[in-house]
Amino acid sequence: MGKILVVGACGYIGSIMAAQLFKAGYDLVLLDDLSTGFESSIVDVNLKLVIGDVGDRALLDLLFSTEKFHGVLHFASLIQVGESVLKPAQYYRSNVAKTLTLLEAMVEHDVGPLIFSSTAAVFGEPEYSPIDEAHRQAPINPYGASKFMIERMLEDFDRAYGLKSVALRYFNAAGADPEGRIGERHDPETHLIPLALHAVLGVRPPLKVFGRDYPTPDGTCVRDYIHVTDLAEAHLRALEYLWAGNPSARFNLGNGNGFSVQEVLDAVERVTGRPVPSEDAPRRAGDPANLVADSRAAKSVLGWNPQYADIDTIVAHAWAWEQKRVKLL
User: Which NCBIfam families does this one have (predicted)?
Assistant: First the structure.
């Protein structure tokens, strides 16, 4: 097992990934600028953390010339859709330009392969659901567009320089480390499950339910929630896939089961034993009624299968983490 560089290792998914790789015995170097991540998300003090910017070419040259890496996992990006509309320059600079710097450094130092954290936002408004890899890509916001541009760069770098990569398109990452050590810590928080749990705990205002008139069984939006540890497992399998000499690829990641906003709130009530304070609000522009992943390709090619597909389990792990967080605040 070779050494792996985890970029964005102090964020939500990156820290879960680092914990799983460490537990499996991999040799790791972690890179994070701590702009949105937390050093306390590193599960073991013996792990090597380099505090720095993935867009810092001098830092990357130093890392790649002094360490022999057998793979790079790239999680570092800005992820707020609404913010990307207001600050597109920031998203193109942070997501696209800095990734270009990483790719150029990897090519120059003959480092590879790369596993890239992409998103379902590359598809834009869905033409059908569940969404497979053949669905057209037409992002409708700068966040999705930035990830789409990076996917295109990866294709071009493969053709021109032979840099192999897998882009994994997440749908709705959710849950927390089953051992309760790490979970979501976004600021601001925009994800449904932590917002609902925060409302239950009384640390945030009542949850807003945006629209109850969608063409779904209960009128609320349906989304595909995938447990964060299942996401991490997919990254490791993607890395092993490329180590085996397979070609670059793109995979959609979801658990294949859509849950409506109301079904998530019902799950939160079952798990916590408390109702979720909420209030109805108008639909948000650009919110599709139904977004569910077709992950058959990842299952077939990577041998990946989500272990925590049940919504109550996803919520239970998040609930254990959020209770711990409140005690630490």
Answer: galE
- Cβ atoms of residues 173 and 258 within 8 Å: no
What type of residue sits at position 109?
A: H
| CA-only gyration radius of the chain, Å | 19
- Domains of the chain: residue spans and CATH: 3-173+227-253 (3.40.50.720), 175-224+256-328 (3.90.25.10)
Q: Phi then psi for 188, rounded to 5 degrees?
A: -80, 160
pTM of the model: 0.94
Could you identify the residue written with the tokens 């609000």?
A: 281
Measure the CA dihedral 314/75/131/194, to 10°.
30
Please give the backbone phi and psi of residue 16, each rounded to the nearest 5 degrees, phi first: -65, -40
Q: Lowest-pLDDT range, 65-69, 281-285, 296-300?
A: 281-285
| Cα–Cα distance for residue pair 311/56, rounded to 1 Å | 40
Catalytic residues: 143
d(CA 50, CA 23): 20
Q: List CB contacts of 86: < 8 A, sequence separation 6 or more.
A: none
Place of tokens 């379902």: 120
From the list 28, 119, 116, 19, the residue with the least C-alpha distance to 69 is 28
What was the pLDDT predicted at 326?
A: 75
Can you spell out the DSSP letters for 265-321?
Answer: HHHHHHHHSS---EEEEPPPTT--SEE-B--HHHHHHH----S---HHHHHHHHHHH
205-219 tens-digit pLDDT: 999 999 999 999 999
**The predicted structure's pLDDT at residue 328:** 54
- Which backbone phi and psi does 172 adopt, to 5 degrees? -115, 100
- The mean pLDDT value for 253-267 works out to 94
131 close to 252: Cβ distance less than 8 angstroms: yes
How many C-alpha atoms does 6 have within 13 Å on its Cβ side? 27
The predicted-structure confidence for 99-151, as pLDDT tens digits, reads as follows: 999 999 999 999 989 999 999 999 998 999 899 999 999 999 999 999 999 99
